[in-house]
Design a protein that fits this description.
By secondary structure, this protein is an alpha+beta fold. It is built from 3 helices and 6 strands. A hairpin with a 3-residue loop joins β4 and β5.
Length: 144
């Protein structure tokens, strides 16, 4: 049974990105499962710090992108998610030339707060970053 209350498609999600950081960093959603979202991002010159490994802030962008999309889809119609807090633990390097693979799963989907766990892995499957995103769930205000 799916947790998504506002299901969508990968194509629809990526079409909304336009001229954004997600496009700049070449983040791609690869799978939407019944209770998870997966994505991938290359690790090239746009993504690394001067020592040739992925920049921690770029890892957080990927994690927050996956968690925000998941939270949006898990909201009841008429509601939307806004970020409250994101953290990340950088466990090992992910060098230039590979990719970052993300898996986002729920920790808690409440009425007013969602918490998401995001694991980022290198091409060899090694975990290089774990992140947690908390979002507030707000009712959409009617347009004037």
């Amino acid at each position: 049974m799916s947790i998504w209350r506002q299901p969508t498609t990968i194509e629809a999600l990526q079409a909304r990105w336009g001229d954004s950081v997600n496009t700049l960093l070449d983040i791609e959603i690869t799978e939407i499962g019944a209770d998870f979202v997966k994505g991938v991002m290359p690790v090239d010159g746009r993504h690394v710090q001067p020592f040739g490994i992925i920049h921690g802030g770029v890892s957080v962008v990927l994690a927050e992108t996956l968690g925000s999309l998941a939270s949006m889809m898990a909201c009841d119609p008429g509601f939307h998610a806004v970020g409250l807090e994101v953290n990340a633990n950088h466990l090992r390097p992910n060098p230039k030339g590979g990719r970052a693979h993300g898996l986002c799963t729920p920790v808690r989907i409440g009425r007013s707060v969602h918490v998401w766990n995001i694991e980022l892995r290198r091409d060899d499957g090694e975990l290089f970053c774990v992140s947690r995103l908390t979002t507030a769930i707000l009712e959409r205000k009617a347009s004037a």
